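Per your request, structure below.
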């Protein structure tokens, strides 16, 4: 069986203190990559992810910083490169939601979600690309959402940010393809994280039942389902795939 081998490579995963990001980081480490675990506020959780990777024989470091802040995002990328020696893989996973119906949504709700999800994808990419261009190698994966493709009531800000990530992915892919750098997006559907509530935690039992009737696979996704797709997109096997959006949703929007 062919396995994905990322030994000798270094990765930065934003928003990796819990949820999908933590599982992506652990899978990258299991494949042999040294991983920088970025987070904004949950230092203890980030340390636990780092410890779990180290106990498993992998290499990981915690890198705090708000990716929507320009100086902080630059420092996060710089710290990852300084401590890991290089940066081959960037996974822009950090994200938040502030769900409200459009007519009740404040400009602050809008700005916060766009800032973390879209600006927070642009900034690490902006600071990682020059390093990847010099290396003539890079793999960038942006964690968007099916909501960016389909829309969803109560999520105008979130949907706009997730659709924006897809446009950013396509533009960046065209700019850097000649330098052996790929930029792709994944669009997960409803994903349940084992460790935290994550973004499906606020659903009521009735909402969960309703959603399940719409998922052909008959189950919510797991963070590992998303991590598997990310792992493929950063692997040597995916070197000719760029500017694409890979949906991981059990058939929800097929
Ligand atoms: P989560 O459990 O809430 O985790 C979010 C992560 O992002 C945390 O590690 C958090 O760190 C970090 N973060 C938030 N703001 C940040 C900032 N400004 N700078 C740096 N890190 C920041 O979320 P999740 O459910 O795993 O979702 C992860 C990604 O998948 C998001 O982009 C989300 O939109 C996308 N997604 C999720 C689902 C789902 O069903 N769960 C579906 C589709 C797409 P701290 O807590 O330490 O601040």
């Amino acid at each position: 069986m062919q396995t994905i081998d990322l030994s000798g490579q270094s990765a930065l995963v934003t928003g990796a203190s819990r949820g999908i990001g933590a599982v992506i980081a652990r899978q990258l480490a299991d494949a042999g990559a040294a991983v920088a675990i970025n987070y904004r506020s949950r230092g203890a959780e980030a340390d636990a992810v780092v410890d779990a990777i180290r106990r498993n024989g992998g290499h990981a470091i915690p890198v705090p910083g708000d990716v929507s802040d320009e100086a902080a995002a630059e420092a996060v990328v710089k710290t990852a490169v300084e401590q890991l020696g290089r940066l081959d893989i960037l996974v822009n996973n950090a994200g938040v939601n502030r769900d409200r119906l459009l007519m009740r949504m404040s400009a602050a709700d809008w700005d916060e979600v766009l800032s973390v999800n879209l600006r927070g994808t642009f900034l690490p990419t902006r600071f990682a690309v020059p390093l990847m261009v010099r290396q003539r190698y890079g793999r960038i994966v942006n964690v968007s959402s099916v909501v960016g493709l389909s829309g969803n009531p109560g999520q105008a800000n979130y949907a706009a940010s997730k659709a924006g990530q897809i446009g950013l992915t396509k533009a960046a892919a065209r700019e850097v393809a000649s330098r052996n750098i790929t930029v792709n997006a994944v669009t997960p559907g409803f994903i349940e994280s084992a460790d935290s509530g994550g973004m499906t935690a606020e659903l009521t039992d009735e909402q969960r039942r309703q959603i399940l009737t719409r998922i052909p696979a008959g189950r919510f996704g797991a963070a590992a389902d998303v991590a598997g797709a990310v792992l493929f997109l950063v692997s040597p096997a995916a070197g000719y795939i760029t500017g694409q959006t890979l949906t991981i949703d059990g058939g929800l929007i097929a």
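Residues 72 and 78 are 10 Å apart (CA to CA).

Regards,
D.
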